[in-house]
Amino acid sequence: MNTESFAAIAGLVKARSGIVLTPDKGYMLETRLAPLLKQESIPSLDALATRLRDPRVESLARAVTEALTTNESSFFRDGKPFDHLRRLLPRLRAARPATHRLRIWSAACSTGQEAYSVAIILRELGIQNAEIHGSDLSREVVERAREGSFTQFEVQRGLPVQMLVKHFRQEGSRWRVSPELRAMTRFEERNLLADHRSLGRFDIIFCRNVLIYFDPPTKGRVMNALAAQLAPDGVLYLGGAETVLGLTDRLVPVAGERGAYALAGAAGAAS
Ligand SMILES: C[S@@+](CC[C@H](N)C(=O)[O-])C[C@H]1O[C@@H](n2cnc3c(N)ncnc32)[C@H](O)[C@@H]1O
């Protein structure tokens, strides 16, 4: 692949998703895009780059972008945010009228493990009147999240066995989330770069392990957009390698809680 082709593909992916592909990622483009080239009978990445110059190839541009997302996820990933959430949820529930529906957003949810981990905690705490909204750029992972069907390998990563038998049903070699968990969740295709105001307020937002792929201005822009959707006493969880420092002044770390952020100036930011 020549440098112009790399720049064209990387430019398209950045514009559509925020994901920055540095020139050392040439090998990744080759491996990730090989199945798409085969499927579309496109002979090379240079030919793909030429094809993408035509603005009418929307579905190809989407497929290229989706193929270059990293969809790694697991249940109760990184542990700590979920320990914090377990302590925070009863407090948030008590601070709101029973008629208030607690709203939790798993932004960039990939195949849904994060959203279902939150659903399990809500069930185990006996918290009623709550909904989890999962969203991701990639159509394929959103469909998988909606299905709520996981392989043995996927459920073995992070899900304690007693939770597995309680909240999942075995279907052949796979495990499907219980109807109760599914009823608490819904999933949609959504780009983090989009305008989120129509989604309304969330009490808690998870946006983990995705901002690492963006450049600093895009990280800051997304964090500000998420802050705008957060309840005044809400919490935003970021991934372990992500921080708000130097990127936005609308969010501040929750003292002593790695990965948890509250709105700047919010009274009683949940620690
Ligand atoms: C590494 S996964 C993280 C999944 C989950 N949040 C976790 O921490 O386990 C990153 C996800 O971000 C999604 N993604 C990348 N760019 C996005 C964008 N602009 N808008 C929404 N989702 C995006 C990818 O499709 C992928 O599923």
TrEMBL record:
Its EC number is 2.1.1.80. The keyword S-adenosyl-L-methionine applies. PANTHER family: CHEMOTAXIS PROTEIN METHYLTRANSFERASE, CHEMOTAXIS PROTEIN METHYLTRANSFERASE 1. SMART domains: MeTrc. Coiled coil: none annotated. The keyword Transferase applies. It catalyses: L-glutamyl-[protein] + S-adenosyl-L-methionine = [protein]-L-glutamate 5-O-methyl ester + S-adenosyl-L-homocysteine. Keywords: Methyltransferase, S-adenosyl-L-methionine, Transferase. It comes from Teichococcus rhizosphaerae. It is an enzyme of class 2 (transferase). GO terms for molecular function: protein-glutamate O-methyltransferase activity. This is protein-glutamate O-methyltransferase. Residues 1-252 form the CheR-type methyltransferase domain. GO terms for biological process: methylation.
